[in-house]
Amino acid sequence: MFRAAWTRTQIKVIFAPNLHWRDFDLKSAIEKKMKLPVHVANAAIACLLAQLTFHQVEGNGDAVLITASEGLGAAIFLNGSIITGHDGMAGEIGHISIDPQGPECACGQRGCWEVFASCQAALRYFRKLQPDHRSVTFSELLSLAEAGNAHADAALTRQAREIGGGLRLIVAALSPEIVYIAGEMTSAWHRYRPTIDKTVRSTTMAGTPPAIVPIPDGDIARLRGAAALVFQRRPLIRPRAAAPWRRDSGRTFRTLQ
To answer: How far apart are CA 34 and CA 38, in angstroms?
Structure first.
Protein backbone atom coordinates (compact mmCIF):
# COMPACT_ATOMS: atom_id res chain seq x y z
CA MET A 1 0.00 0.00 0.00
CA PHE A 2 1.21 3.50 -0.77
CA ARG A 3 -0.09 7.00 -1.21
CA ALA A 4 0.99 9.07 -4.17
CA ALA A 5 1.21 12.85 -4.43
CA TRP A 6 0.44 14.24 -7.87
CA THR A 7 2.38 17.20 -9.28
CA ARG A 8 2.67 18.52 -12.82
CA THR A 9 5.87 16.59 -13.47
CA GLN A 10 5.93 13.52 -11.25
CA ILE A 11 4.04 11.17 -8.99
CA LYS A 12 5.89 10.62 -5.73
CA VAL A 13 5.23 7.87 -3.25
CA ILE A 14 5.08 9.96 -0.10
CA PHE A 15 3.97 7.28 2.34
CA ALA A 16 4.36 3.49 2.19
CA PRO A 17 4.78 2.34 5.82
CA ASN A 18 4.88 -1.39 5.09
CA LEU A 19 7.62 -0.83 2.50
CA HIS A 20 9.40 1.86 4.56
CA TRP A 21 9.31 4.25 1.61
CA ARG A 22 9.00 8.02 1.93
CA ASP A 23 9.13 10.65 -0.82
CA PHE A 24 10.16 8.19 -3.51
CA ASP A 25 9.66 9.19 -7.16
CA LEU A 26 8.47 5.77 -8.29
CA LYS A 27 7.07 6.94 -11.62
CA SER A 28 10.34 8.48 -12.81
CA ALA A 29 12.39 5.53 -11.57
CA ILE A 30 10.31 3.02 -13.56
CA GLU A 31 10.17 5.23 -16.66
CA LYS A 32 13.95 5.62 -16.60
CA LYS A 33 14.44 1.87 -16.37
CA MET A 34 11.71 0.75 -18.78
CA LYS A 35 11.90 3.61 -21.32
CA LEU A 36 8.08 3.68 -21.35
CA PRO A 37 5.42 6.09 -20.06
CA VAL A 38 4.19 5.04 -16.61
CA HIS A 39 0.97 5.78 -14.72
CA VAL A 40 0.78 5.09 -10.98
CA ALA A 41 -2.06 4.44 -8.54
CA ASN A 42 -2.22 2.52 -5.28
CA ALA A 43 -3.93 -0.86 -4.95
CA ALA A 44 -7.20 0.43 -3.48
CA ILE A 45 -7.70 3.06 -6.17
CA ALA A 46 -6.78 0.54 -8.87
CA CYS A 47 -9.38 -1.93 -7.58
CA LEU A 48 -12.02 0.80 -7.37
CA LEU A 49 -11.20 1.98 -10.91
CA ALA A 50 -11.70 -1.58 -12.12
CA GLN A 51 -15.07 -1.76 -10.40
CA LEU A 52 -16.23 1.58 -11.83
CA THR A 53 -14.92 0.85 -15.33
CA PHE A 54 -15.79 -2.78 -15.94
CA HIS A 55 -18.73 -3.47 -13.62
CA GLN A 56 -22.15 -2.05 -12.84
CA VAL A 57 -22.21 0.12 -9.71
CA GLU A 58 -25.57 -0.21 -7.99
CA GLY A 59 -27.64 2.55 -6.41
CA ASN A 60 -26.40 6.12 -6.29
CA GLY A 61 -22.80 5.02 -6.75
CA ASP A 62 -21.36 6.39 -3.50
CA ALA A 63 -18.88 3.70 -2.52
CA VAL A 64 -15.79 2.92 -0.48
CA LEU A 65 -13.43 0.09 -1.35
CA ILE A 66 -11.33 -1.50 1.40
CA THR A 67 -8.23 -3.53 0.59
CA ALA A 68 -7.18 -5.97 3.31
CA SER A 69 -3.77 -7.60 2.99
CA GLU A 70 -0.57 -6.95 4.95
CA GLY A 71 -2.10 -3.53 5.62
CA LEU A 72 -5.49 -1.88 5.27
CA GLY A 73 -6.27 0.82 2.72
CA ALA A 74 -9.27 2.46 1.11
CA ALA A 75 -10.43 4.24 -2.01
CA ILE A 76 -13.39 6.63 -1.84
CA PHE A 77 -15.95 7.38 -4.56
CA LEU A 78 -18.48 10.08 -3.60
CA ASN A 79 -20.74 12.34 -5.64
CA GLY A 80 -19.29 11.08 -8.91
CA SER A 81 -15.60 11.52 -8.08
CA ILE A 82 -12.73 9.47 -6.71
CA ILE A 83 -11.53 11.41 -3.68
CA THR A 84 -7.74 11.64 -3.38
CA GLY A 85 -7.46 14.54 -0.93
CA HIS A 86 -4.49 16.71 -0.08
CA ASP A 87 -1.25 15.09 -1.30
CA GLY A 88 -3.23 12.00 -2.30
CA MET A 89 -3.62 10.95 1.34
CA ALA A 90 -7.39 10.38 1.39
CA GLY A 91 -8.17 6.78 2.23
CA GLU A 92 -5.47 6.10 4.82
CA ILE A 93 -8.15 4.76 7.12
CA GLY A 94 -5.96 1.83 8.16
CA HIS A 95 -3.82 4.33 10.05
CA ILE A 96 -6.61 5.78 12.15
CA SER A 97 -5.79 4.82 15.72
CA ILE A 98 -8.68 3.06 17.45
CA ASP A 99 -6.68 2.07 20.56
CA PRO A 100 -3.80 4.36 21.63
CA GLN A 101 -2.51 1.55 23.87
CA GLY A 102 -2.62 -1.06 21.12
CA PRO A 103 0.24 -2.70 19.19
CA GLU A 104 2.70 -0.51 17.32
CA CYS A 105 1.93 0.03 13.65
CA ALA A 106 4.43 0.25 10.79
CA CYS A 107 3.51 3.95 10.49
CA GLY A 108 4.89 4.62 13.99
CA GLN A 109 1.56 5.08 15.77
CA ARG A 110 -0.07 2.63 18.15
CA GLY A 111 -3.38 0.88 17.79
CA CYS A 112 -4.12 1.68 14.14
CA TRP A 113 -7.11 -0.09 12.61
CA GLU A 114 -4.84 -2.19 10.37
CA VAL A 115 -2.94 -3.73 13.30
CA PHE A 116 -6.26 -5.26 14.37
CA ALA A 117 -7.99 -5.91 11.04
CA SER A 118 -5.30 -6.76 8.46
CA CYS A 119 -4.29 -10.24 7.36
CA GLN A 120 -1.10 -9.82 9.37
CA ALA A 121 -3.29 -9.26 12.43
CA ALA A 122 -5.12 -12.54 11.76
CA LEU A 123 -1.78 -14.35 11.66
CA ARG A 124 -0.81 -12.71 14.95
CA TYR A 125 -4.07 -13.86 16.56
CA PHE A 126 -3.41 -17.42 15.39
CA ARG A 127 0.17 -17.43 16.75
CA LYS A 128 -1.15 -16.35 20.16
CA LEU A 129 -3.85 -19.02 20.15
CA GLN A 130 -1.59 -21.83 18.91
CA PRO A 131 2.02 -20.81 19.63
CA ASP A 132 3.41 -24.29 19.05
CA HIS A 133 2.23 -24.36 15.42
CA ARG A 134 4.74 -23.66 12.67
CA SER A 135 4.67 -20.28 10.97
CA VAL A 136 1.96 -20.06 8.31
CA THR A 137 0.98 -17.72 5.51
CA PHE A 138 -2.46 -16.16 5.36
CA SER A 139 -3.43 -18.56 2.58
CA GLU A 140 -2.42 -21.47 4.82
CA LEU A 141 -4.41 -19.95 7.68
CA LEU A 142 -7.52 -19.96 5.48
CA SER A 143 -6.86 -23.61 4.61
CA LEU A 144 -6.44 -24.53 8.28
CA ALA A 145 -9.79 -22.93 9.10
CA GLU A 146 -11.46 -24.84 6.25
CA ALA A 147 -9.89 -28.05 7.58
CA GLY A 148 -11.50 -27.49 10.97
CA ASN A 149 -8.69 -25.92 13.01
CA ALA A 150 -10.58 -24.09 15.78
CA HIS A 151 -7.76 -21.62 16.46
CA ALA A 152 -7.54 -20.64 12.80
CA ASP A 153 -11.31 -20.17 12.72
CA ALA A 154 -11.15 -18.00 15.86
CA ALA A 155 -8.38 -15.87 14.37
CA LEU A 156 -10.38 -15.20 11.20
CA THR A 157 -13.53 -14.49 13.19
CA ARG A 158 -11.69 -11.90 15.27
CA GLN A 159 -10.29 -10.30 12.11
CA ALA A 160 -13.81 -10.13 10.68
CA ARG A 161 -15.08 -8.52 13.89
CA GLU A 162 -12.30 -5.93 13.79
CA ILE A 163 -13.02 -5.14 10.14
CA GLY A 164 -16.71 -4.68 10.90
CA GLY A 165 -15.96 -2.56 13.96
CA GLY A 166 -13.65 -0.27 12.00
CA LEU A 167 -16.18 0.12 9.22
CA ARG A 168 -18.34 2.14 11.61
CA LEU A 169 -15.81 4.96 11.09
CA ILE A 170 -16.37 4.76 7.34
CA VAL A 171 -20.14 4.64 7.67
CA ALA A 172 -20.29 7.51 10.16
CA ALA A 173 -17.91 9.75 8.21
CA LEU A 174 -18.87 9.05 4.59
CA SER A 175 -22.23 7.22 4.59
CA PRO A 176 -21.54 5.16 1.45
CA GLU A 177 -24.27 3.07 -0.08
CA ILE A 178 -21.86 0.22 -0.72
CA VAL A 179 -18.55 -0.94 0.75
CA TYR A 180 -16.42 -3.22 -1.40
CA ILE A 181 -13.88 -5.54 0.22
CA ALA A 182 -10.87 -6.71 -1.78
CA GLY A 183 -8.11 -9.08 -0.75
CA GLU A 184 -7.30 -12.72 -0.27
CA MET A 185 -9.84 -13.00 2.54
CA THR A 186 -12.69 -12.78 0.00
CA SER A 187 -11.91 -16.37 -1.04
CA ALA A 188 -13.32 -17.37 2.36
CA TRP A 189 -16.12 -14.81 2.38
CA HIS A 190 -18.57 -17.32 3.87
CA ARG A 191 -16.48 -17.08 7.05
CA TYR A 192 -16.26 -13.30 7.11
CA ARG A 193 -19.63 -12.10 5.89
CA PRO A 194 -21.89 -13.03 8.87
CA THR A 195 -19.61 -11.36 11.42
CA ILE A 196 -18.89 -8.25 9.32
CA ASP A 197 -22.55 -7.76 8.38
CA LYS A 198 -23.71 -8.21 11.98
CA THR A 199 -21.11 -5.80 13.35
CA VAL A 200 -21.84 -3.11 10.73
CA ARG A 201 -25.59 -3.36 11.33
CA SER A 202 -25.16 -3.08 15.09
CA THR A 203 -22.87 -0.04 14.90
CA THR A 204 -24.69 2.00 12.22
CA MET A 205 -26.11 4.98 14.10
CA ALA A 206 -29.16 5.57 11.91
CA GLY A 207 -30.52 4.83 8.48
CA THR A 208 -29.72 1.83 6.33
CA PRO A 209 -26.26 0.28 6.68
CA PRO A 210 -24.25 -0.05 3.47
CA ALA A 211 -24.16 -3.24 1.47
CA ILE A 212 -20.87 -5.09 2.05
CA VAL A 213 -19.73 -6.66 -1.22
CA PRO A 214 -16.59 -8.77 -1.75
CA ILE A 215 -14.48 -8.39 -4.87
CA PRO A 216 -13.03 -11.79 -5.79
CA ASP A 217 -9.64 -12.16 -7.45
CA GLY A 218 -8.14 -9.06 -5.84
CA ASP A 219 -4.88 -9.36 -7.79
CA ILE A 220 -6.79 -9.47 -11.07
CA ALA A 221 -8.88 -6.49 -9.96
CA ARG A 222 -5.67 -4.51 -9.44
CA LEU A 223 -4.49 -5.38 -12.94
CA ARG A 224 -7.86 -4.39 -14.40
CA GLY A 225 -7.61 -1.14 -12.45
CA ALA A 226 -4.16 -0.50 -13.90
CA ALA A 227 -5.65 -1.01 -17.37
CA ALA A 228 -8.49 1.38 -16.53
CA LEU A 229 -5.96 3.98 -15.39
CA VAL A 230 -4.15 3.73 -18.73
CA PHE A 231 -7.47 3.98 -20.60
CA GLN A 232 -8.17 7.25 -18.76
CA ARG A 233 -4.75 8.79 -19.27
CA ARG A 234 -4.35 7.64 -22.89
CA PRO A 235 -7.82 8.09 -24.46
CA LEU A 236 -6.82 6.82 -27.90
CA ILE A 237 -6.83 3.26 -26.55
CA ARG A 238 -9.86 3.57 -24.32
CA PRO A 239 -12.28 0.66 -24.87
CA ARG A 240 -15.59 1.59 -26.46
CA ALA A 241 -17.68 -0.34 -23.96
CA ALA A 242 -17.40 0.17 -20.21
CA ALA A 243 -16.24 3.80 -20.08
CA PRO A 244 -15.62 4.86 -16.46
CA TRP A 245 -17.98 7.81 -16.65
CA ARG A 246 -20.98 5.81 -17.94
CA ARG A 247 -23.97 5.40 -15.61
CA ASP A 248 -27.47 4.20 -16.41
CA SER A 249 -28.79 7.18 -14.45
CA GLY A 250 -26.94 9.58 -16.75
CA ARG A 251 -24.62 10.82 -14.00
CA THR A 252 -21.01 11.48 -14.92
CA PHE A 253 -18.10 9.70 -13.26
CA ARG A 254 -15.16 12.05 -12.70
CA THR A 255 -12.20 9.83 -11.93
CA LEU A 256 -8.47 10.47 -11.78
CA GLN A 257 -7.01 13.27 -13.88
So the answer is: 9
